[in-house]
Design a protein that fits this description.
β5 and β6 form a beta hairpin. The protein is 40% helix and 17% strand. It starts with a helix and ends with a strand. It is built from seven helices and six strands. By secondary structure, it is α/β, with parallel strands linked by helices. It has two domains: 169 residues, Phosphoglycerate mutase-like (Rossmann fold, 3-Layer(aba) Sandwich); 35 residues, no CATH class.
């Protein structure tokens, strides 16, 4: 990621443009499971990742920091916000999708307990529902509304949002026009930094999984 170049661009943003840094939280306890809305803390490995994340983000002229209300995101956001001397604005709209009966399970556990449903979910994603899960249409509306509010409040500025892989993938997918079945092709590592410029009439993705 060409951070210096992006930084220079952001400092001269037009008044009608918002640069959004979408950051995935650091590694959490139970990493690799379908965590969804389980309120877990950062793992020891995640806390060790925060210094590098803060260094990456420091290259951007961030003026506001937002976070999902789930603990793993808030802990990540608080570390980054200290770099800029800012407070974290917590937004429940930015939390991960609820995975219903799959919450907290690994894929191997899901495949053993729900073998037919697991096969259907892979085959029919995103149309195959998970029992007890948040409807995908509701999830997409929720995060789109949350992002719109942040963009509207930060015209001409750079804002940083710490959230979850699902939220980031669907936000990137919307800007890129990607069909939902292709969203898992977008890598989102722990502490990934993604950069989107929201313009007056459209948006431009400048970095993915940086």
């Amino acid at each position: 990621m060409e951070t210096a170049s992006l930084d220079e661009q952001a400092r001269g943003l037009p008044a009608t443009t918002c640069r959004l840094l979408l950051v995935r939280h650091a590694t959490a306890e139970g990493n690799g499971r379908f965590q969804g809305q389980r309120d877990v803390s950062l793992a020891r490995a995640g806390r060790q990742e925060l210094r590098l994340l803060c260094e990456k983000c420091s290259h951007h002229p961030v003026r506001a920091v937002y976070s999902s209300d789930l603990r793993r995101a808030r802990q990540t956001a608080e570390a980054v916000a200290r770099t800029f001397g800012l407070e974290v604005e917590v937004r429940p709209q930015l939390r991960e999708i609820h995975f219903g009966q799959w919450e907290g399970l690994s894929w191997n556990q899901i495949a053993r307990r729900f073998p037919r449903l697991a096969d259907l979910w892979i085959e029919r994603f995103p149309s195959q529902a998970i029992p007890g899960a948040e409807p995908l249409s509701q999830f997409k509306k929720r995060i789109a509304a949350g992002i719109r509010e942040i963009v509207a409040a930060n015209q001409g500025q750079c804002a940083l949002v710490v959230t979850h892989a699902g939220v980031i993938r669907f936000t990137l997918g919307k800007v890129l026009g990607l069909p939902s079945p292709y969203l898992f092709r977008l890598a989102q590592d722990s502490c990934a930094v993604n950069v989107i410029d929201y313009l007056k009439n459209g948006a431009v993705v400048r970095c993915i999984n940086g």
